[in-house]
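Re: the multi-chain job from yesterday

Posting the exact lines I submitted so nobody has to dig through the queue logs.
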Amino acid sequence: MSNENIVLSKDMWEKVDTSLLQSDVIARPSMTYWQDAWRRLKQNKLSMIGLITVIILTSLAVFGPMLSAFEYSDQDLSMSGLPPRFDYYQVGDKQIYLHKEYRLYEVENGEFIQALPKTKEDMMKRQRVYDVDGTPVVVDYSFAAKARKSGDPNAKKFELRVGEEVLQPVGKSFNKTFWFGTDALGRDLYVRVLFGARISLTVALVATVVQFFIGVLYGGVSGYLGGRADNIMMRIVDIIATIPLLLYVILLMVVFGSGLKTIIIAIGSVYWVRMARLVRGQVLSIKEQEYVMAAQTLGASTWRIMVRHLIPNAMGPIIVSLAMTIPNAIFTESFLSFIGLGVSAPMASWGTLASDALGGLRTYAYQLFYPSLFISLTVLAFNFLGDGLRDALDPRLRK
Amino acid sequence: MEKKNDVLLEVKNLKKYFPITHGLFGNKKKYVKAVDDITFSINRGETLGLVGESGCGKSTTGRTLIRLYDVTGGEVIYDGTDISHLNENEMRPFRKKIQMIFQDPYASLNTRMTVGDIIGEPLDIHGLATGEERQKIIWDLLERVGLNKDHANRYPHEFSGGQRQRIGIARALAVSPEFIICDEPISALDVSIQAQVVNMLQDLQEELGLTYLFIAHDLSMVKYISDRIGVMYLGKLVEVADADKLYEDPEHPYSQALLSAIPIPDPDIMKTSERIILEGDVPSPLNPPSGCRFRTRCRYAFDRCASEEPLLRDIGEGHMVACHLMDEKFK
Amino acid sequence: MSQKILDVKNMKTSFYTHVGEVQAVRGVSFSLKKGEALGIVGESGSGKSVTSMSVMQLLQYPGKVKEGEIMFKGDDILKKSKKDMMNIRGDEIAMIFQDPMTSLNPVYKIGDQIMEAIIRHQGLSKAEAREKAIDMLRLVGIPSPEERVDNYPHEFSGGMRQRAMIAIALSCEPDLLIADEPTTALDVTIQAQILELLKELSEKIDTSIILITHDLGVVADVCDRICVMYGGLIMEEGTAEEIFYEPMHPYTMGLLKSIPRMDEESEDQRLIPIPGSPPDMIKPPVGCPFAARCPYTMKVCMEKMPEYSVTETGHRAVCWLNHKDAPEVQVDTGVKRGVK
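And the result, structure tokens for all chains:
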């Protein structure tokens, strides 16, 4: 197929001035590093779920307790041990709920109205009689002992009778007064769990702030100075890193007393170490880059180089590390509170809630469920978010 | 072009050693003698090319001159002042006079800064201009290197290698320097772009009266842009001569081998030329050969080469060679 | 007349990325005779490396040869199974890469890496393979090969590593050796050594070579024929003499004008750069890819891709200037023949 067969019109042979085409015009829109990272983060479904969860959690922590009528420390012993979802019975036009400890409550559309008065207690026959708006209702719990002996988990443990008639549950309802139920002291778990969220997020914030300001600066200076100064600074970091957290917290408790303040001091004084090491490593490699040398040849001061060149380029791993240490900090606080080294009563941390729930675990499983659920969700959410951030901020995966 | 014999930069016995510690407590020190006692000078308005292969110390020389590294020994006299031991504050005014252009267009610009900020940074550091005036200077510089005003708000990653290199040049020009060290500025660029950048450097030199130290390993390009060329081997300067003279009459055996190794884009010449193929590899700079460092690969080596190090001497018209063979030839 | 060992017909390779199809190679045809050395010259984005990777079937995801034939010794290797291809690689077609540090596995001894290919393709025993490996090291000019065969890559210098790469590549006496920028990362004196070696060996073992590079000096030294690529297409193909002394394409001429030559007097030299930059291969230009940077562009160049014009000697170029109806244009060919 040769050139010869193609015949072209005369004007096709006119010369074209290509100088305009050669001018350096950039057609594509400008996208900064952050815009590109955000675009990539958005594509990662799990990370977005994590991010949304974190946002929801934070909103709940801040605004949630306002939605409930109760304070985190309000207790009402008569309302203890109420589950978030329960069976109810109908007696006349009243609905009643039978507590695990064989007390009766009047409920209406899920709301708990009051604990019903007990009119009679028969210890021998293991029966109680309650007055439901004039109607006596018998709670016969004599079956409980036999059920326990037989070992059959489905054996009948009680009977609820009006006269001769054995009542059956007429429906299930969500607890609209205490959305997450109550604990052993009758405190609303919803408010307490969200209060725990506040504590966890406060701890997360402290860890983040400390890491960012102390860790980044320390590591940055250490990496930039290099040589002996770097050596000494890193050895200090090594020493701090080897302190066992538990012993350290106990020591602090002796000095400062227990409570949120102690936890904050403990986490704050230890968590910057990891970030310092990370930033030092980043700075060590970044400072060999030619643009840092260029800044030096321009006469830039050490401060300027750190703040304008080194740290912005290390931001990726810094942010990822922040995102990944937060679940760590939250879990540590929960753990410390769980073993009794954390916040003190009546403050509610997820850890203390879990610890409190252990006692009645068999009967009141929901008391452990909610704090555990929240710990898991929060830790997972931050982990997904951190993973997504790591991929989104990695400059090598760009474009 | 008229060249006054007005020395702008004088380098005397420059040494740059890098310590390597080993031993159990890091107490034993060995030195990589990257630059070991070199002496040369550059006249105002001229371009001195510095060539050599990897490990010869040419890049280290450039970086030591501009005090990115500390000087281990010797003097660096810029326009009459010895800048080799000034502290950072004393050095700062010289940073407006001596600038540098780097090799890697992808690493020499901070990707988090806009092009405008990159070029404007030297203005900020030295307080040379603010506000509108600063903006105007930035735009002028952009246009001078062949880019547009609107490029100032873009980020480095949006530009090609050649364009980035031009941004780097604009940054260096922002302080109105007198002397620019070009550290392999075109090695990472495509062939057709290299000529663009080199031509621009030459035009800028004429326009602004700049003096260049042009460090590269591509001898053809160095010969094109330089007035004089220095050849380095393993931390030493082995020959310094006018660019054309070096090609016509290389005296040092290493220069001869280096020149003959360069392929010329001309099949007839390549088929007929006799190549000097050097045996073996470059020795380690930790343990350079005694006497003349090139003797292990030199086909003319004799006894004196191992026992005595040859010094750079002038064999006529500023042509300097460091080789014992010169004693015989130029008695 | 020696037979054709490789015949590539209208090969097109694209990378299907999330931003679109990057058409790296847009219809490349060339052939190689036994014992011949072909140079493929181009800059970044020209498609030269992708061409060689396509021939070796070593394209990484998301790259794919989407059209064309690659006839190697008469068979279309695009139709071969993975297994067949693995047998061919190393044995009949071998490749050496640019960076010898990353192409050698740092945790295996050099000898083992050479033996791996020998054992796999020639079925020799370990002892026999070791002997052959030592011979190969000697052949590529590594001193004391009996000792060095047990060294690790980091104990070799850059030049020696590249020689070891060549030893691995030639150990099974392949018919075709593809060298992708084999000397770009090396010092110029080492480059001279390696190029001499390649020339010697290709004569000794009668291996055909495809040498991919951006350095016109290197192809002038080593190659019999040269393809000049730009924008995913071959702009010009001819013998080394034809390309350097009778270029038919403005891009070739532009390259010749923009590279400095050692043997020219500095005063006389004027480098004439090619303005602009290479095109974006996601949206390759309609018409000739070089049109935006060419000093002789005509209206037709922007709109239509020209056909190849071929001389009797097989020298071809794809440019509208060579069309019979094209106007007479004074062209600066940039040819400097034996200047000194």
